[in-house]
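R.M. (postdoc): so does anyone remember the format we settled on? I'll just put the structure tokens first.
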């Protein structure tokens, strides 16, 4: 007597459904970043303009020891989601740093507010590009990149603290922020 053949059609339909689900999941994340395209070309430029407007005078001449240096190894990625995650982490740290109550009083408050608002909106947009469960960072490499970013911004905080949050130290931080926006621009282009 032959075995009933009913489980086989269910398996075929289940495999088709699973294949469709996996295809949708594989394509959903890259599609989530398409909303960045119109704004991504102007975000770094707009941010640089606002950063300049915050303190239009040239940086005060001062000589500080142990100034932080941006880790260019962060740019060694060709994976679009990894580039988005690195850009997001840089922007999160920039937002935290530039929203500090210890920023110089001579900085233009409206330009600073506009820059922070710009950062907040773009951070939100970038968050939509990343998987919610963090599976992108289970490997060793990306985690090290994120640790390098955290270490770089910790050095910036230490630099400010060491120099008593002086206007000169903040001007140096503003120059570092300029470099960060240029690097974010590079990372945004890698997301495409």
């Amino acid at each position: 007597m032959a075995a009933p053949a009913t489980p086989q059609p269910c398996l075929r339909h289940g495999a088709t459904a699973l294949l469709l689900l996996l295809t949708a999941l594989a394509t959903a994340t890259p599609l989530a970043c398409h909303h960045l395209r119109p704004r991504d070309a102007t975000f770094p430029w707009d941010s640089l303009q606002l950063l300049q407007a915050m303190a239009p005078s040239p940086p005060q001449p001062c000589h500080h020891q142990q100034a932080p240096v941006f880790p260019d190894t962060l740019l060694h990625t060709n994976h679009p989601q990894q580039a988005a995650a690195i850009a997001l982490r840089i922007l999160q740290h920039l937002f935290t740093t530039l929203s500090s109550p210890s920023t110089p009083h001579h900085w233009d408050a409206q330009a600073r507010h506009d820059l922070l608002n710009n950062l907040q909106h773009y951070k939100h947009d970038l968050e939509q590009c990343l998987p919610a469960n963090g599976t992108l960072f289970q490997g060793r490499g990306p985690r090290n990149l994120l640790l390098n970013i955290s270490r770089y911004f910790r050095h910036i905080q230490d630099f400010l603290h060491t120099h008593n949050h002086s206007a000169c130290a903040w001007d140096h931080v503003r120059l570092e922020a300029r470099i960060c926006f240029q690097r974010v621009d590079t990372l945004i282009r890698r997301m495409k």
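R.M.: ...and that's the designed sequence above, right after the tokens. Also worth knowing: Confidence is low (pLDDT under 50) at residues 11-32. The helical segments are 7-32, 37-40, 43-54, 80-98, 109-127, 140-162, 167-191.
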